Amino acid sequence: PVTDAEHDEL
Amino acid sequence: MNIFRLSGDLSHLLAILLLLVKIWKTRSCAGISGKSQILFAIVYTTRYLDLFTSFVSVYNSFMKVVFLTASYGTLYLMFFKFKPTYDHNHDSFRILYLIIPSLVLSFIIVHVYTVMEILWTYSIYLEAVAIMPQLFMVSRTGEAETITSHYLFALGSYRALYILNWIYRYYTEDFLDMIVIIAGIVQTILYCDFFYLYITKVLKGKRLSLP
User: Fold this and answer.
1) What ipTM goes with this model?
2) From A8, which residue of chain B is nearest by alpha-carbon distance?
3) Chain B interface, mutation test: which of A6, A7, A8, most B Cβ atoms within 10 Å?
4) pLDDT-above-70 percentage for chain B
5) Which end of chain B, C or N, has fewer beta carbons within 10 A?
6) Are the Cβ atoms of A10 and B60 closer than 8 angstroms?
7) What is the structure's pLDDT at A2?
8) Are A2 and B112 in contact (CB under 8 A)?
9) CB pairs below 8 Å between A and B: how many?
10) How far away is chain A from the Cα of B93, in angstroms, using its nearest Cα?
11) Model pLDDT for residues B153-184, shown as the tens digit of each residue
């Protein structure tokens, strides 16, 4: 699962 | 961070600054879709709320603040400072047709059911189609100023470069986020027609005008 912190993109 | 991601970000930054400088220097926002700019402001706002909840890097946070500031700055210039130059007659795309379906989709296809995650997903879906009012405006007026064409090219290139970034990340980090990848591909496809015109006309020194 993806967490907020894993959205390491702009 | 890799070279594709960095190039994409810089292209994105260039696009946003190009638009601001164009409006400021010419004291006019003619030919620019205020509706696309409203959609982009919604996109940045819903995506970068994580500025308050999670920290990844100084670079990320800095860029998020720049994008947000530039986006709202553009809206201010278009709808307040240079409002008389805004060509709203040609900016007639109904943005609710983009806002509502994106919102619905973000409740249906989302990784995790949290408010932040749904808002992030919504921003991804909305961004994919946010340029449609602008492309619609260009097709209605049948032309675009050269600087506007550069803006659109830089903005379209950014997501195309991100696709290379995702391919690279898939092989090096085993990173695979289908939501952002599919949306990014849709977003890039929307620009293809424009890319063709840009390469065949604008790069040869001609003004972008439709037959």
Assistant:
1) 0.81
2) B56
3) A7
4) 100
5) C
6) yes
7) 52
8) yes
9) 31
10) 27
11) 999 999 999 999 999 999 998 889 999 999 99
What would the pLDDT profile of B13-62 be if each residue is shown by its tens digit?
999 999 999 999 999 999 999 999 999 999 999 999 999 988 889 999 99
**pLDDT for residue B92 is more than 80:** yes
Closest CA relative to residue B133, chosen from B208, B209, B36? B36
Q: Fill in the amino acid letter for B37.
A: Q
Of the candidates B33, B39, B41, the one whose C-alpha atom is nearest the C-alpha of residue B71 is B41
Spatial separation of the C-alpha atoms in residues B91 and B135, rounded to whole Å:
10
Candidates B120, B125, B111, B128; CA nearest to B51 is B120
Q: In terms of CA atoms, which chain A residue is nearest residue B43? A: A10
Q: What is residue B161's predicted lDDT score, i.e. its pLDDT?
A: 98
pLDDT in tens, B195-206: 999 999 999 988
CB B87 within 8 Å of CB B31: yes
Q: Quick one: DSSP state of residue B111? A: S
Task: Determine the longest span between alpha carbons in chain B, in angstroms.
Answer: 51
B54 and A9 within 8 Å at the Cβ level: the answer is: no
Alpha helices in B49-204 (DSSP H): 58-76, 96-108, 115-129, 132-141, 146-173, 178-200
Q: What is the rounded radius of gyration, in angstroms, for the C-alpha atoms of chain B?
A: 17
